[in-house]
Amino acid sequence: MSEGILDYYEVIDGFLYNTNLKPDLQFLPVALREYEGLRRSRGYAQRIVTVPEDPGHIAIPNRNVFRYGQRVLPGSAFWAYSFIASTGLFSVQVRDNCSDETLFSEVILASPGSADQNPLPKLMVVGEPGLLNFEICSLSGVDTTGVQLILWGGEPKFPTGAVE
Predict the structure, then answer these.
(1) Domains of the chain: total
(2) 48 with 24, same domain?
(3) pLDDT (tens digit, 9 = 90+) per residue, 52-76?
(4) Whether residue 16 is found in the same domain as residue 59
(5) Which of 4, 38, 49, 59 is the least crowded, having the fewest Cβ atoms under 10 Å away?
(6) Are 151 and 119 in contact (CB under 8 A)?
(7) Torsion 37-33-73-82 (CA) sign
(8) Going by C-beta distance under 8 Å and a sequence separation of 6 or more, which residues neighbour residue 78?
(9) Bond into 74 cis (ω within 30)
(10) Is the pTM of this model over 0.70?
(11) Are both 84 and 147 inside the same structural domain?
């Protein structure tokens, strides 16, 4: 019998000694497994970042960029995003202010009612000093208002130097 691709992955459940239980190789189960250690940790409190905080008063001109800086605790981790807009094509980028490293970048085709949580391909952990730069670019050809990016995650309950 020939070996399949699943024969190269470890057994999920060693307790049952069932070698037929293999990981699901679709995106969501793989992403959730990446976050398993963080989900079991009790050292994080929920943190939700909304950019901009009040989307009704911010306009993004046609083919232009909205830039925003947001401070978070160093060590904060984000695992999903939601993007809210009526319609249009947008480019979203989140960068670490200190290292200028791109932490997250996505092109999003927005439609009404599409504000679902989308898991990030890997855990986004913010380093020192904890400043994120956001860029939301309208690629749809019209001026846009009411656009909002939401990052779902957690921040350390006990920041560096804090005593429990």
Answers:
(1) 2
(2) no
(3) 888 777 778 888 888 999 999 988 8
(4) no
(5) 4
(6) no
(7) negative
(8) 47, 49, 104, 120, 123, 124, 126, 151, 152, 153
(9) no
(10) yes
(11) yes
Identify whether residues 119 and 149 lie together within a single domain: yes
Domain range holding 97? 43-156
Paired strand residues for 88: 110
Tell me the C-alpha distance between 98 and 68, whole Å.
15
Q: Tell me, yes or no, whether 162 lies in a domain.
A: no
Q: Cα separation of 98 and 110, whole Å?
A: 30
Instruction: Provide the pLDDT confidence category of residue 1 given band limits of 50, 70 and 90.
Output: very low
Residue 159 pLDDT grade (very low, low, confident, very high; cuts 50, 70, 90): low
What six digits make up the tokens of 155?
């921040």
Distance CA 143, CA 136 (A): 13
d(CA 105, CA 94) in angstroms, rounded, equals: 6
Does the pLDDT at position 81 exceed 50? yes
Q: How far apart are CA 69 and CA 136, in angstroms?
A: 12
Q: Are residues 30 and 52 in the same domain?
A: no
Dist CA 135 CA 108 (whole Å): 13
Residues 63 and 27 in one domain: no
Residues 77 and 106 in one domain: yes
Place of tokens 């947008």: 90
**Rounded CA gap, 55 and 71, in Å?**
18
